[in-house]
Write a structure and sequence with these properties.
By secondary structure, the chain is an all-alpha fold. Helix content is 78%, strand content 0%.
Length: 241
């Protein structure tokens, strides 16, 4: 434990008064540290909450940005099967069972297919190529549906945030600046508490700490531990000789 520093030899009344002053000073310095620590924790929670909201908005932005390229890829694959790929894609997307119908060979339900069906031969070269492209079109349709569902969920989650990215960016900046200020102020308050603990000595600190609210006891114990580590380092280096 930290080295106790004996108070001057005075009368019992003056000793009691000195202890009272010491306890009051310890409470004041511990209270400052405790207040800064509570403020730091509150700001940290706020910053974390805002950061999570920012991630939600970023995810929504990314998810919706993928809709256009995914739709374009679906239309390109549809163009290998249909003469009017835009019309075919709209029809497929309007049908929740389109992928199953494509798998069942019902591609004609969504528009005019490329090429011509020929008796006995099954179809000309364009029609055969269109039929060969159907499995990939079906996969692309399912993939686009997945992109749409992901974007819908992301947009719904973003709507619950209740703020745009510009507003959220400003809030995160203010919280980060406040957090930096609190962290800068906490250090001097902790050092002041360590100096108070060192000046009062172990016995006085232990007595006074037991009478304080639990919220103020923790920073004092931390200060005591910090001084203990400092003294251990002094002894390890042989500087106390």
């Amino acid at each position: 434990m930290i080295l106790a520093r004996a108070l001057p030899i005075v009368s019992d009344g003056r000793k009691d008064l000195a202890r009272d002053y010491g306890a009051a000073e310890l409470e004041r310095t511990a209270s400052r540290v405790h207040q800064w620590e509570e403020r730091r924790q509150a700001l940290s929670r706020e910053h974390q909450h805002l950061s999570r909201d920012w991630q939600v908005l970023e995810h929504a932005q990314k998810a919706t940005s993928e809709l256009g390229p995914s739709r374009a890829a679906l239309e390109r694959d549809a163009a290998r099967v249909y003469t009017n790929p835009q019309h075919a894609v709209r029809a497929m997307l309007a049908d929740p069972h389109a992928a199953d119908r494509l798998a069942a060979g019902q591609a004609q339900a969504y528009g005019q297919q490329r090429g011509h069906a020929l008796p006995l031969l099954g179809g000309d070269r364009q029609r055969r190529a269109a039929e060969q492209a159907l499995p990939h079109l079906r996969w692309r349709l399912e993939d686009h549906r997945h992109v749409e569902r992901t974007a819908a969920r992301a947009v719904e989650a973003a709507g619950r945030v209740g703020a745009g990215m510009d507003q959220l960016r400003a809030q995160i900046g203010r919280a980060a600046a406040s957090l930096q200020h609190v962290r800068a102020a906490t250090g001097p308050a902790e050092k002041a508490l360590e100096r108070t603990v060192e000046r009062l000595g172990a016995a006085a600190v232990n007595t006074a700490t037991s009478l304080l609210p639990k919220g103020l006891q923790l920073p004092i114990r931390v200060a005591v531990q910090a001084l203990d580590r400092a003294l251990d380092l002094v002894r390890d280096l042989g500087l106390d000789r």
